[in-house]
Specification:
This protein is an all-alpha fold. The chain has seven helices and no strands. Helix 3 packs across helix 5 and helix 6 crosses helix 7.
Length: 173
């Protein structure tokens, strides 16, 4: 079967997606630039600057965000396909509702659906699911941020490859 293109002048993505992909590449380059330097002048001397916050903390985030932008660009819908069914205030209120009810012994997803019904939001299945996934991911991320020190202790304890309190906790909960 011979495959032909009807219009050879069209691009795979629209201009907006290419701009976001290019922005991601620029942010990755900035991340790598932030990692430059920090070495010592003499090869037998150790320089602590190599483990500074800029190289260990800031630069990896630039690279991570730069890698996520092209993925987001590929997944973006065309402008004409975007339909916003809720206001930012409604989204904020529903996000807060989900975050506050997540740790209660009741369904936070159920509360989201009740909140959508109270606001009279008519969302398609894909829109509703996407919103639910985003607010649940936000809750998971905020939990990781709040417990970051405890999580780091557990990971570091397990990576010692010794039977210690962290290994027991991770193994048996």
């Amino acid at each position: 079967i011979l495959l032909t293109m009807e219009n050879k002048d069209t691009f795979l993505f629209d201009r907006r997606k290419y701009v976001v992909i290019f922005a991601g590449l620029v942010i990755i380059a900035i991340g790598f630039a932030l990692m430059l330097g920090g070495g010592s002048d003499a090869p037998d001397e150790f320089n602590e600057a190599i483990f500074g916050a800029q190289r260990i903390g800031v630069a990896p985030w630039f690279i991570f965000i730069g890698l996520m932008l092209p993925i987001a660009a590929i997944m973006m819908k065309k402008k004409e396909d975007l339909v916003f069914t809720m206001t930012p205030i409604q989204a904020l209120i529903l996000g807060l509702l989900q975050g506050l009810t997540e740790f209660l012994p009741v369904s936070s997803s159920g509360h989201l659906e009740i909140g959508k019904a109270l606001f009279g939001l008519e969302m398609s299945g894909a829109q509703s699911l996407t919103f639910d996934v985003v607010v649940h991911a936000g809750t998971a991320l905020s939990t990781i941020v709040v417990f970051r020190k405890d999580i780091a202790e557990l990971i570091l304890g397990v990576l010692k490859f010794k039977w210690n309190a962290e290994t027991k906790f991770v193994s048996f909960g």
